[in-house]
Amino acid sequence: MTTVQTVSTQPYSDQKPGTSGLRKKVPTFQQPNYLQNFIQAIFDSLDGIQNQTLVVGGDGRYYNREAIQIILKMAAANGFGKVLVGQGGILSTPAASCVIRKNNAFGGIILSASHNPGGPKEDFGVKYNVSNGGPAPEKITSAIFDRTKTISEYKILDASDVDLDRIGTTQLGHTTVEVIDCVADYAAQMETLFDFAAIQDLLSRGNFRICIDSLHAVTGPYATAIFERRLNAPAGTVQNGVPLEDFGGGHPDPNLVYAKSLVDVMFKDDGPDFGAASDGDGDRNMILGRNFFVTPSDSLAILAANATLVPGYRNGLTGIARSMPTSQAPDRVAEKLGIECYETPTGWKFFGNLLDADKATLCGEESFGTGSNHIREKDGLWAVLFWLNILAVKKQSVEDIVKEHWATYGRNFYSRHDYEAVASGPATQMMDDLRSALGSMPGKTFGSYEVAYADDFSYTDPVDGSVASQQGIRIGFTDGSRIIFRLSGTGTEGATIRLYVERYESDASKHDQDTQAALADLIQLADEISHLKEITGRDQPTVIT
Fold first, then answer.
1. Prediction pTM value
2. Quick one: signal sequence residues (predicted)?
């Protein structure tokens, strides 16, 4: 017989959720009652969980299985009626959102540190998603944090572990735990949005080859099932397709630095026609053509401009939403389509209200995340299928589609420079110094650039009126160029300073410039204004995208 145990505990002071939940090193989560405290704080902060359905899964990183067993027993002890858990403990973040929505679940707990490394000494994360399938809004994450500061006990069922590898149901006390196929619901939803027959025809042509790199992260089973089995791409199309607890020692971040093996394949003269990579939990994407990289900002703009070619978006878009640091390329598409383009803070939760209110259909962030109203998370494989659907219809190369887009709308030269694991004190001081200088900047001239506006971005949600302030420092120039500085909230040590630089070019004869060369004077200007290199002691960014 199983019994509910009430265990005494002490609060931890460092359990404030960031942009995407609570992220810490694995040894931090392994401290006595650390995970249990945070899970109980989630349950204590929610009203009406009795007999409700909870979805649980993660990206397969180290500590995923152990954490899931704890969460299942705590969910049972706290009165959930049913828990749906991905087979092997696996659920990509977009698949978890899909499963929550399909099953009208109360919410879900997703175990991931997204694109951060995994392993015994690396990163782990826990986030709560609400009933619409999207990340918990700030009022809930704040309530969870407040609860962590006063927690004195948690409830857990004294029971055997659940067999996570066998599809089927198990009873944990009065709670039914159902282990589900982690791919099925998600793949079925993709088939309702995209023309699988057209994509299958594209992939069956001998002259069109693709390469999908799952970086030994969560999308391996999804990509293999969809591309190699359902769409008949050749075996081996998906590389690094087996999820590993340490992601094979790699960094599961789909960018030009960390997905180098894919980049090397795609930049050969006889490379595949199309390549894509996704991240640890499957919500980000990188799109490549042969010898050609598509920036995430351009990708969002191109998907929006071509949306009516895809069955799920044939009737057009109600609006587009982009995060503030994302380039203004999607704004130009929205203007031509006669629809709104919303500029939000960074963090997918800010898109949720717009999607729920049908104010936006497509949304995206420059950090390799794009998505739509089909779920309430960004979705890496969705973006890949969207691109393949467009390629199947237009019968052009990736490079030709992008250059045709630039010829129509102009090109937003754009780059992000990440300075990772910077000491928090100097990084914060740099931002404070910039903030204090903003008032005197408008009208100032730096070389050939005149400042049109300078502010610390604040956002008022058009749906619920909530306000998010201090979301990043923007310096905009009269020619439309921008420099943006943000401290990232997705790392687990030190601070990551992100510098974003953007310049618009309407002259098609100048569209083939190298991006870093086209932005060189603005990059230098950003350093002069912020003293970034002096403060960080770094000559070069850690990553340039």
1. 0.94
2. none
Q: What is the mean pLDDT of residues 362-389?
A: 96
Residue partners of 534: CB distance under 8 A and separation at least 6: none
CB-based burial label for 514 (10 Å; 0-12, 13-18, 19+): exposed
Same fold, 3-181 and 186-409: yes
**What class has domain 186-409?**
alpha beta
Q: Domain ranges for the chain, please list them.
A: 3-181, 186-409, 411-544
- Judged by average pLDDT, the poorest of 184-198, 214-228, 477-491 is 477-491
- Round to whole Å and give the CA distance between 31 and 534: 37
Separation CA 272–CA 291 (nearest Å):
9
Give the residue carrying structure tokens 């994360």: 125
pLDDT for res 70: 98
Would you state the structure tokens that stand for residue 403, as one six-digit string?
Answer: 């250059």
Q: What is the mean pLDDT of the chain?
A: 95
| 3-state SS track over 234-285 | CCCCEECCCCCCCHHHCCCCCCCCCCHHHHHHHCCCCCCCEEEEECCCCCCE
Q: Which of 114, 278, 327, 367 is catalytic?
A: 114
Q: Give yes or no: 372 in active site.
A: no
Q: What pLDDT is attached to residue 18? A: 83
Helix axes 184-193, 93-102, angle to 10 degrees: 90
The CATH number corresponding to 3-181 among 3.90.950.10, 3.30.1330.60, 3.40.120.10, 3.30.1490.20 equals 3.40.120.10
pLDDT digits (tens, 9 = 90+) for 116-138: 999 999 999 999 999 999 999 88
DSSP string, 93-155: HHHHHHHHHHTT-SEEEEE--TTS--STTSEEEEEEE-TTSSBPPHHHHHHHHHHHTT--EEE
- 179 - beta bridge partners? 85, 168
Q: Within 10 A of 527 (CB to CB), how many other CB atoms are there? A: 15
**Residue 126 CA to chain centroid, in angstroms?**
14
Tell which phi-psi region holds residue 451, choosing left (phi > 0), alpha (psi between -120 and 50) or beta: beta
H or E stretch at 43: helix 34-44
List CB contacts of 190: < 8 A, sequence separation 6 or more: 196, 226, 381, 382, 385
Separation between Cα atoms, residue 315 and residue 319, nearest integer Å: 12
Q: Where are the alpha helices (DSSP H) in 328-421?
A: 329-337, 349-356, 380-394, 398-409
CATH of domain 411-544: 3.30.310.50
Tell whether the model's pLDDT for residue 493 goes beyond 70. no
Query: What distance in Å separates the CA atoms of residue 487 and residue 495, rounded to the nearest whole number?
Result: 7
pLDDT digit string (tens) for 22-52? Answer: 999 999 999 999 999 999 999 999 999 999 9
pLDDT at site 257: 85
